[in-house]
Structure formats: C-alpha cells, structure tokens
Amino acid sequence: MARTRRMKVSGEEAYYHVVSRTVGGEFYLGDVEKERLLQVIRSYGRLYFVEILGFCLMSNHFHLVVKTRSCVDVTDAEIVERVSFHYGLDPEVVRGKDLAALRQKLCDLSEFVRAVKLDFSRWYNRKNRRRGYFWGDRFKSVLLEGGVALAQCLAYIELNPVRTGIVDRPEAYRWNSLSFRLAGQGDFLSWNGMDMGDVRRYCAMVYQVGKGGRLDSTGREQGRIRGDAREPVSLWRHKVRFFTDGLVLGSKAFVLDAYERFSGCIHKKERRAHRAAGVEGVFSLRRLTAAA
C-alpha cells in the first residue's frame, strides 16, 4: 500500500502537529535523554524558521506543535544571522552560499524534523556506544488550522502524560510545554496562531477553567493554577486518532480547501470533511473513530 504524501503548505505560514516514535517503541528516553532532546529542538528552532508552540516528550515518542514561516517573508539577512550563529560561521562565508536553497530548507517542516532526529540519534548512539536506527517509521504530521483546532491539539498533547497515568495533572509532568510556561521557562515557546480567546479555550480544555476566569499572557488564570476541581476533560484522557492520523484538522471550510490544495496527494474519491467526534466545530480530512 502506497504511503500517503505529507500535507505541507508552500509559500505561506502553516501549523502542524508532529509525532515521532522510537524504533520498535522502545523506552529509550529517560530524563537525561529528554533534556538533551529538548535542547536539540530549541537549537534547531532557532536555526529553522519554525516556531515551537507546544511539546510533550515521552519515553518512546515526542509531540510537537509548530508554526512554519512562509519562505516569501524570510530575508537574506535573517538567513545569514541564523546560519552563522548556529554553525559559528563568519557571516561573509554564509553570504557566499546559495541563500535561495537555504531559504527553502530552513522553512521546510520535514527538514526541521529530520535535523532534530538526526542530531539526537547521533548523540544517543555515541553516548551508549550503539549503532543502528533510533527512530522508527517516518514522523506523522497533521496540518492544523490556527485558532480552535490549534488550541485543541495543544491541549491534547499537554494531557499525554495524564492519559498514560504518569501524573494526575499535566503541569506535574516535567517534559511538556505547559509545565515550562507555568514555571516561567517558556521563553522559547510561542502563542502565535491563537488569540486570548483561543488561549482561554486551551486552558478550559486542560483544566475546565470557567469562561469568566482572567488569563495572563502565559495562560495562567489570575496568576496561578488553583486546585479547585480542575480535572482534565474526559475526552482527552484517551488517545484521539484524528489528532495524529487526521492529516488535516480545522473548520469544515479549511478541510475542504485542503482537498483542492493537495489534490495530487489525496486518492480518496470522497471529498468530505468529517466531523471530529467530541470536538465542536472541528473537522478532519480522514474519517476516524474518536479514540483508539
């Protein structure tokens, strides 16, 4: 069976949920490895034109929610600055390179994920005197619409350690973006793509925060998370397939537009937006059951 081509937007900004697993699902990632993986993600986030909106690092896989920039908006000066800083090169040396090719590479989601995975796997294999593949099959990605679908997906990945029974509350888990934001360590994280209404919705999905609660720019309600009856919403306590396998997730119009945009990649005869069960106003390109 031919694999589905990745839905990647060209020439404009886009949001994605990325998931990648270790080979064989082995539990290779302890605290030391997760710290290193996060360092690698942050480092390449400064090199590539990819903003990190959210992450969750588990023992055998990781989740990222990212925004990629449009190549059209990237200047030569930005490329020179980022490449020279990352590799420790003289800016004049970088200016002599093919900046057009670098622009395409540094705005490409697949190139970013490939760089992260390759850098980390080389470190891990050296550290453990190991050979062979560290990561399993190619990473999965879902194209997200900004706003509601983006907020929903962020909430979903924050609750991963709750779903697996590691913690009762997501901020108690060290290796997700929520704990970093609440600890004041989320300077490398972006809210780009969500207004305060979306941030409020995100917090409501994670903690069932009342709509009247006041949030600051980090997503905290009135400066802190209170302990009163804030349990994660029940749907996100289970694996929800459309967040990882839906290919495209957003409003009905957004999904229908994807059929036209990616007509060469989609082999389905049916051109429908499938309602994402349990999530109001969100549709998926694939018809999937809510949980698996």
Radius of gyration: 19 Å
Give the strand order of the largest sheet, numbering strands 1, 2, ... along the chain. Answer: 2-3-1-4-5-7-6
End-to-end CA span:
22 Å
The CATH class of the largest domain, by name, is Alpha Beta
What is the percent of helical residues?
25-40%
Number of domains: 3
* CATH architecture designation of the largest domain: 2-Layer Sandwich
Strand proportion, as a percent range, falls in 5-15%
Q: SSE order in H/E notation? A: EHEEHHHHEHHHHHEHEE
The CATH topology of the largest domain is Alpha-Beta Plaits
Molecular shape: globular
Low-confidence stretches: 209-233
Biggest sheet layout: 7 strands, mixed
* Distinct helical segment count: 11
CATH homologous superfamily classification of the largest domain: Transposase IS200-like
> How many strand segments?
7
Quickly give the structural class: alpha+beta
The pLDDT mean sits at: 85
